[in-house]
Structures are given as C-alpha cells and as structure tokens.
Amino acid sequence: MNFRSLSPSHEKWEQKQRCCVYIFVECRKKRLQFARAHQNWTVEDWKNVAWSDESRFLLRHSDGGVRIWRKQNENMDPSCLVTTVQAGGGGVMVWGMFSWHTLGPLVPIGHRLNATDYLSIVSDHVHPFMTTMYPSSDGYFQQDNAPCHKAPIISNWFLEHDNEFTVLQWPPQSPDLNPIEHLWDVVERELRALDVHPTNLHQLQDAILSIWANISKECFQHLVESMPRRIKAVLKAKGGQTQY
After folding, report:
1. Is residue 244 part of a domain?
2. Pick from 141, 147, 86, 137: nearest CA to 112
3. What's the pLDDT tens digit per position in 137-178?
C-alpha cells in the first residue's frame, strides 16, 4: 500500500514513493510471464476486460484536507501503515470496476474487505456487470491477489460461473498494469479541486461517488487503450517496475 496526500507540497514525495516499490524476484517472473502471454493482445482484446480494485480515501480533520490510502501491492509496507494513525478523521473505502464500455458500480465498504464481504460484491455487482456487458461469455474479470480475492468461497463461486466469464490470471505486485489505478488518480485530483472540501465522512463519500459517476467515457477508454503500451513496458523492464 502507498499513502497518497492531496497536499501539493507532497507531490514529489508521492512520485518518489511510487517509483521505489520493490518487486520481488518471483513476482518479476510472473509479471514477465503475464506480459509475454498477452504481448499480442490488441486494444480490441483488452476491451473484453473488466478492471476492479479497492481504494481508501482518508479524511484529515485538522485542516479539512483529504488523504488517500492507496493499495500498490498485496505486501503491506509497515512504514506506510503508521500513517493511518497520523492521518486521523477516519476514511471511506470503496470498491469499483469498469471496462471499455462503461463505468461499473462504485461500492462503499464499511471496513476492510473479508471473503464474505467480497462474495457479496462478486455476486451482486461483478456478476450482473459481466453478464450484461459480455453476453457472449467472452469477458475477462480482473482482480488482484488480495487474500479475500483468493479465498476458497470466492474461487468456488468463480468456478461455478466459469461458463459466463473468465477470471484473468493476474500477476502479483502489478498495480502499474491495472488502469483503474489512474481512475483513483482522477478522483484524487477532483477532490483536490473542490471549492468546498469535505469535512466529514458522509460528505467525503458523496463527493467520491459524484466524481466517479462523472468520469468521462473518453477518460476511461483512453486508459484501456494504454494496455498494449503497459505490456511492452513490463517486457522492456523484464518484469520490473514501469513508469505506469
């Protein structure tokens, strides 16, 4: 996870943090395998993928500013965890998904996801999205390797529905390959640009949901169009960190 601040004075620090994520050797291998397996995919192929992720937006009461707790990989760095105590004010966690065709739902989550919570999201939100957007069963659903995503009840549910869509086998430590990360950046920028900043969690949640609903089609389609370039970047880095 990576702690992001909306304060402009921290922007250089944020960029440095994002560039210094260590990718373990085994993860590099899996990232490289994934890139090689998808190096011939065109934008038309990537249009069949629905992307998902969770993000937490923290409210800092001391100055009314907003801070964002951003997941960058499944291995949490203790040096980042301490900032949750420093931030104060609580936060709003959301789960979202999108594809080339449309933005999907953005679901507020009351606490960190467990397998039971995630099963509800998968059955209530992922399933109808995938069957509606990809009625020919040619869609791929992307999720990262968070523990709740890999729980037996989740794996069994996907197996029971594998005739309707396919779960993309996602490499670990790969937020740079997930274009939804940049939609969180959009939400971040729009929160920063608000004339009146949220001062409580209800206002913060309402602002996040409103910003998400108004993200332009041009914006998220452009992100899907970047996928061949992202794959090439991973190949060039031999599975290592990319500029994304």
Report:
1. no
2. 147
3. 999 999 999 999 999 999 999 999 999 999 999 999 999 999
d(CA 96, CA 107): 6
Number of folded domains that form the chain? 1
Write the CATH number for 230.
3.30.420.10
Extended beta strands in 160-204, E state: 166-167
Using alpha carbons, select from 1, 21, 7, 40 the residue that is nearest to residue 228.
Answer: 40
For residues 165 and 216, give the distance between their C-alpha atoms in angstroms, rounded to a whole number.
26
Q: Is residue 186 in a domain?
A: yes
The counts of H helices and E strands in the chain are 12, 7
* Domain-located, residue 83: yes
CB 191 within 8 A of CB 66: yes
Q: Is residue 242 part of a domain?
A: no
pLDDT 10s digits, 177-229: 999 999 999 999 999 899 999 999 999 999 999 999 999 999 999 999 999 99
Domain range for 229 is 2-236
Q: Output the pLDDT for position 20.
A: 57
79 Cβ contact partners less than 8 Å away, ≥ 6 residues apart: none
Residue 52 in contact with residue 97, Cβ under 8 Å? Answer: yes
Mean pLDDT of 22-50: 98
Rg (CA), the chain: 18
Q: Are 100 and 85 in contact (CB under 8 A)?
A: no
The better pLDDT of the pair 70, 41 is held by 41
